Amino acid sequence: MSLKRRQFLLFLGTAAGTSAFGAWGSTQQGSVAAIGSTASSTAAGVTTASARSTGISTGTVAAANATPFQPLKGPMPYEALKVSGEQQPTAFAQYAVQDDIVLPDGFTYDVIASWGDAVGDSRFGYNNDYLSFVPTGPDEGYLTINFEYVSSETWAQTYPSVIGKMLPVDDVIEALKATEGKLDAFALPAANPLKAQIKEVAKEALLDQGMGVISVRRQADGQWVRVVAATDRRISGISGLEDGRYLKSTGPATAIFTKTNVTGYSDGLGAQVIGTFGNCAGGTTPWGTALSAEENFQDQVPEAVYSDGSAFSPSKKVFDSGLDGQGNVLGLAGNKYGWIVEVDPSNPNDYGTKHTWLGRYRHEAVGVRAEAGKQLAFYSGCDRRGGHLYKFISTGTVSDPSANSNSGLLADGMLYAAKFNPDGTGEWIALTLTTPVNPILPSSVVGGMVTLPQRPEGGFSKVEDDAVANALKANFATLGDLYEGSDLEKQGAILIDAHFAATAAGATTTARPEDTDVAKDGTLFIAFTSGTPGGDGGPDKAIFVGPNGEAPYESGWVMKLIETDNEPAALTFSWSMFATGGEPATGGLGFANPDNLEFDNQGNLWVVTDMSTSTHNNAVTKRTNDAGEPLNDKDLLGLYGNNSLWQITVSGQDAGEAKMFAYGPMESELTGPYFTADGSTLFLAAQHPGERNGIRSAMATETREFQMKTTTGQAFMQKREVPVGSNWPAKSADAPPKPSVVAIRRIDGGSIS
Q1: Cα separations (Å) of 495 from 266, 372, 514?
Q2: pTM listed for this prediction
Q3: Nearest alpha carbon to residue 479 among 433, 518, 536
């Protein structure tokens, strides 16, 4: 179902919006040195960036001066462009994609930092994702950045020119050919030369993941730049390995980390944790800390654990020629990854705390609800096909939402997983010892498979037969029966194995829940990116259907969830889909695969998309396969072009419209949108430019054909010029693509929205 004007007005009324966090105190920066650059490029009717002065004085940006931006013309027609169906075949017959962050006329961006830039005693990492801005004054603050993963081929190709040294990647890949492209480096003798080479590559790849804290300032001309500060630091995938900068942990899983007699593998470090990686989305607390979500940790260490919560051996996730299995050679313990990390950007000695009451799974985002006199609620999704939506409720209550002591509330509480009912109601299921085992049945899931705890072997199994799932229920009455140890240790093991425990308890398998964001009125918004099943499972057949009843449906949804009586600690809720991805001709809003969400200070919802790089601008010369059958929406993703950023307007004459505000460089994903409180700046990251084709050589471009549809359903052909690879952000011939963070602003200095 697409989002219609009347649905928006009925839903939103005057309540929707976003929490606007004020300054959380000031920090003495000492001597500062400006670091930064401003890019400039102009396309037909589009200013992507400019070096022109805004003419504003620091601290004088006025949101009231804003005028609505003109929506971008992407490659696909959509309603907000106000081009009639009859005119669209001509207006969209030709389209030229640009290798840039393309913005509406009147907007510009400043490049704040790029991969390889100096940060403290380290460097700015790769594939920047979530951004957290904590102001320290009217025009300055801390910017905390997540670094998710390295795009192996492009990272290796550009590493020498960006970092200025060589890595033995080619030698390692050549050596791995003798072992079918993979090797258990953990088991190799310490003196083995290949082990040393793999360790060098793995350490550099993990160094480019994790988190970073930098300081930024807006100059009198409106441009944002970096400033050198004592708080600048990196928290990487190898923090603590050699420098003693271990991360800490709280909550029941710590009892597993410190246990000496375990079934599986222990790194011998107790509560100390080496690093953080897979850092995707996140959140910012009202008390001024940044939250980082460890997502695809299973690419680097084993996900499976034994029934006592201990890790499988590092040998179960080997190093491969795609540079996955980075934790193997270093002997990292898999049960210490997949958590939420909290960092205080103002404390230069804080290298992060993993709060285990929030659960271990493929975390994506943290929606924070902190209200005086009420229990704290944190929301997060598990970004896998068939992943669950979770809520943590603290035992204690919030006194002052801005108090640093609120971090202590994360050390005691309960984790819940959502069960969605087809009638629009739902409940939160506690993941604790006494919760009954009542598994999700494979027959209820798109794709017909669920993953459940495997006993007595430990780990998990892929179940395609309802009888096997029902046998688990017959043999184990409660979640506590599935795990071993004292009550505290069992609770820790359940949290470590949260995804599989939640499936065993009957939590709904969903459609890749990515971002979770809480509106000003307490309503939760969830981006469900893709309804297609895969190797991890699939979504519930009754809940996740396309605008015309399709299941599977690839293009995704945005859901709203309202707690009963609007209470953060409520255990029941109502839900509905109010925005659906897909082509406008078939009921979608014109984008596909919604990911990060953000509200501006006017209450408008902003959405970035996360189409897989392998689909970008893939030619669609016809809409049927060789058998004459219609292509499904997954096969049509090439129509949408590059990943993009959209605003869904929620007030005024355009309420209910989705408007493209930006699209990203070639083969990239726009991530981590974060507005300043005055609405004048949007911090945004562009990760993995050139991920598919690497460096764009000699400004190479291809012409491809696409069978498009008008908003009214008429088919027409489009010729599209598509750059091959990327040179962003330098945009000069043969320049290496570098993941980077930018600050977007109006050239005239007004509010963005």
Answers
A1: 17, 27, 20
A2: 0.92
A3: 433
